[in-house]
Amino acid sequence: MVDWVYDELVLAADLVSGNGWTGVRAASPDAQALSALLRRGQLHEGEDLPANFRSPSSIQRKTYDLSTADEHYEGTPTRGGRLDAPIIAAFREDTAGMQARAAAIRAALEAGETLPAANDEEEPEAREGGILEHLARRRERDRGLRSRKIRAVLAAGGTTACEVCGFDFGVTYGERGEGYVEVHHIRPLHVTGATTTRLEDLALLCANCHRMCHRGRWITPDEVRVLLRPGG
Ligand SMILES: [Zn+2]
Ligand SMILES: [Zn+2]
Q1: Cα 213 to middle of ligand 2, angstroms
Q2: Per-position DSSP letters for the chain, written without gaps between them
Q3: 57, 110, 136, 159: most buried by Cβ count inside 10 Å?
Q4: How far is the CA of 218 from the centre of ligand 2 (A)?
Q5: What is the pLDDT of residues 19-56, one digit of tens each?
């Protein structure tokens, strides 16, 4: 059996939240549509998928697992996965936000995007945040966006030093580091629900602070700054 990844669970929990917080039947149009979408396998790059992978009945089973992991469920929970309870709790806490995230995941899959394989060394963190984090990181590497942001910062009298720790690649590495800095989305598109990036939503960061923003749950540069230790 192929483990359900985060994005798949969000899509299944989305059906639960839209169905009075209960599971959906295999024969329902929602279960059929989600099965067809997930069976394309874009969230399981490079894996061997069994013939019954994410069949409509497996969608039914997972949505009932999720609904019985809900804190409002009064019976005995079915045996679901480790992420079932936190994901259904996230939908209870911020229903509209999580439904928007589900819509963005669905749109990415329908557009043919794939989640990098588990052994992709370029994006060790992408799998944790799912396909939306992968897309956001790809957008952050967009050279045009990066140079627009840097031009705007310089025009406003700023520098390309890291906004969190002040590290300046040019100062430390001389000519080789001159002008190098990474661009980070403070509020990624899957959180804001926006479709275009505003320059003020981008931060200039050194490679270390940038990695700390993305490690595990996505945190803001301000949150990383709080973690900085003097002399560390
Ligand atoms: Zn830094
Ligand atoms: Zn980033």
Answers
A1: 7
A2: -PPPPHHHHHHHHHHHHTTTTS---TTSHHHHHHHHHHTT-TTSTT----TTTT-HHHHHHHHHHHHHTSTT--SPPP---TTHHHHHHHHHHSHHHHHHHHHHHHHHHHTT--PPPTT-TT-TTHHHHHHHHHHHHHHHT-HHHHHHHHHHHHHTT--SS-TTT---HHHHHGGGTTT--EEEESS-HHHH--SS--GGGEEEE-HHHHHHHHSSS---HHHHHHH--TT-
A3: 136
A4: 9
A5: 999 999 999 999 999 999 999 999 998 899 999 999 99
Q: What is the pTM of this model?
A: 0.80
How far is the CA of 9 from the CAs of 27, 104, 131, 178, in angstroms? 19, 14, 13, 44
Q: Among 57, 56, 44, which residue's Cα sits nearest to residue 2?
A: 44
Retrieve residue 59's tokens: 């969608």
> What are 83's two structure tokens?
């992420």
- What is the Å distance from ligand 1's center to 202 Cα? 14
Q: Give the Å distance between the CA of 157 and the centre of ligand 2.
A: 23
Q: How many Å apart are CA 80 and CA 70, to the nearest integer?
A: 11
What is the CA(204)–ligand 2 centre distance, in A? Answer: 9
Q: What is the mean pLDDT of the chain?
A: 89
CB 43 within 8 A of CB 132: no
**Which ligand is nearest to the Cα of residue 134, counting in written order?**
2
